[in-house]
Amino acid sequence: ELAQQVMVKASYPSGDDITRHVSQEVLRQADAQLQKSGTGVPMFAQFKPWFVAQTVLLLELQRLGFSPTNGIDIYFLQKAKDRKKIMELESADSQIDLLNSFSDREQELFLLYTIKDIDNTEKNVNEILASWKKGDADRMEKFLTESVKGMPELRALYGRLVDDRNESMARRIDGFLKTQDTCFIVVGSAHLVGEKGLLNLLKKAGYSVEPL
């Protein structure tokens, strides 16, 4: 059901396609990258740039041996199924709607950045994993924020993709913690670190936060 929703929201209506919304140069770069995986822009012409960007990244991660089925969300959902009450910090719909709300220019920037940084994927993943294993939040924050410094226009997008969602999730977590329940909360590592990260927001709300 979710996959169907994504397909509908990620697609242009009949008579429209990506060539009307993205420059030929960015399309050329996207096509060159997709051809490495045996596909190409023509196969994704009906889809919006944000979806193409996600596809490019997913294909590269799969090439490196990573599988979406091993994501922390899927892993812990399977562990909790039929054993614990499961609640959302944010809905999948809200995530899709956020990506869908980007302007043509923002989506083009998102796609362009993904393509330009794709060759660094293995190095990026290893850096994040190394920082996470050591519990080095400062190193992880520096790495994540530096990744958008090369394209200042992405800063606003990063704020909407990460910072704004952190504030919303922090309010939701605050509500959970005011109940009598013990909560186990799972989020991606980018949401944990930095001044506007969840850990700092929870500290500002008066909670004691410490690594285990």
Structure description:
The chain is mainly α. Helix content is 58%, strand content 0%. The chain contains 10 helices and no strands. The protein starts with a helix and ends in an 8-residue tail after the last helix.
Secondary structure elements and pairings:
Layout: H1 2-10, H2 24-35, H3 49-63, H4 72-80, H5 92-100, H6 104-117, H7 121-134, H8 137-146, H9 154-177, H10 198-204
Low-confidence stretches: none
| H-E order | HHHHHHHHHH
Radius of gyration: 18 Å
Number of strands: 0
Number of helices: 10
Give the rounded overall mean pLDDT.
Answer: 90
- Describe the sheet with the most strands: none
> How big a fraction of the residues is strand?
under 5%
Helical coverage, percent range: 55-70%
Globally, the shape reads: globular
The class by helix and strand makeup works out as mainly alpha
Which characteristics define this entry?
10 helices; mainly alpha; 212 residues; single chain
Summary of the model, kept short:
The chain is mainly alpha-helical.
